Amino acid sequence: MSRRSCSIYTVGIICALLLVLGIGLMVAQVFRTMMHNRLKKEIVLVEGSRVFESWKAPPPPVYMEFFFFNMTNEQEFLNGAKPKLKQIGPYTYREYRYKDNVSMVRDGAMVSAYNTKSFVFMREKSVGDPAVDSITTVNIPAWAVMNKAKGSFWKAPMVSIWMDSTGSGFFTTRTVDELLWGYEDPLLARVAPTNPDVEKVFGLMYKKNGSNDGEFVFHTGQQNSLDYGRVVTWKGESKLTFWKSNQSNAINGSDGSAFHPLLDKNERIYVFTPDLCRSIYMEFEKDVEVKGIPAYRFTPPRSVLASKEENPANEGFCISPEECLGTGLLKVSPCRKGAPVVASFPHFYLADSKYVDAFEGINPQRTHHQTYLDLNPTTGVIVRANKRAQVNVLMSRLSGFPKTRVLNETIFPVMFINESVVIDDASAARVHKLLTIVTLGSNFPLIIVGLGGIMLLIVIILLARDRKQKAAAEDDTSYSPVNLKEKEDSQNGTYIGLTQKGEPQA
């Protein structure tokens, strides 16, 4: 066998081995599984892991925007007219959040922490000065006190007298600062001495600047990556006590700051939110991209806040038949000291149309009022998010308060928030680097197949050249005459010399 033939056979064998090996690894997904297992070990809530420090102190800036509904026809509404509202905002605050008192528990399988938040006003991102701008809105303290005293033979008349003496009506006009961070309410000041659970000061964000929602215990994700960041207990309890059913009281999912890697489009993402006193779920909506990072958008479907008729699983959120509202609303009185507070999405997005039609100035739009999470499916990292929620007050006729007889039941909007975040450039660069490593590692068999393909091309070229050279050699060795006589012989070398025939001898 010639040296050229030996080389061709060698290259052909290497080509076959590479192709078989590469295709086999692709089918078995060996490298993909190896990279995913490595990723699961990296993304855990333990000291020294890739994500631990950013989990404790998230680097991307978070902004909290407050939008208020200013009541422009108070007297006309009390006389039976449709209320007219004007949205005013945003009043934007930079939200600084970090995990405090972080400690490992249960032999490192879990980690406990407090979610501490603080807020700093940002004038350049706001429409006005919260210390100056005034808003006319529902008098929440008055409605809370009236709801506590309704039906009582002696409490209701007493509260009516106190409201008249302090000038507390159904509505109040306060600055944005007062509504958010607190003011001393005259009616609460009268009630506080008789009830130690009542404070004189009221504010929608009162005592929330520099505070936390209580102790959380989270799964680290070491034992099961699907448990990464999942809440185990809140304030020492593994379930809530506000609602009527075990399903409604269940604490499901994370606190919204961490999600497990290798997300699937078909799964539900659960988030426990202390502000709503419950867990909600989100479902895949569409593929998006943020700063070059691919992401899945998850958003709460209509069924999350659907009525019990539309979604029977939500019946547990009805403490009583009167407190079971329509689709798009959740009465959170059980965790708001009995105050008639109702939660919804902004402008009653995804709610029954009757709540929208009850006002002038309410216009739900998905772009501006939808809550969503954009998560990178490989790492579970949040690349963009908008958490939007609206605070409403239930206004209705209350026994013992004659002035409420002129009112029909109304879910009155007070304000809504938009808590937003977009991944910063430094974090995005780290995610890009990690995704590149995972992609290259997972697709290593493709590289092997590619090398096999190159070798196959080389084999084909070598075979073609070898065949061409053999054909040329055959042409060079064709027959040619060796002497002139043979060349001139028309019989092509068959000449035989003979003597002349003589006469026969006697």
From TrEMBL:
Residues 471-506 are annotated as: Disordered. The keyword Calcium does not apply. One of its GO terms (molecular function) is scavenger receptor activity. The chain crosses the membrane at residues 7-31, 444-464. InterPro entries: CD36_fam (IPR002159), LimpII (IPR005429). It comes from the Eukaryota. Belongs to the CD36 family. This is Lysosome membrane protein 2-like. The gene is LOC114472790.
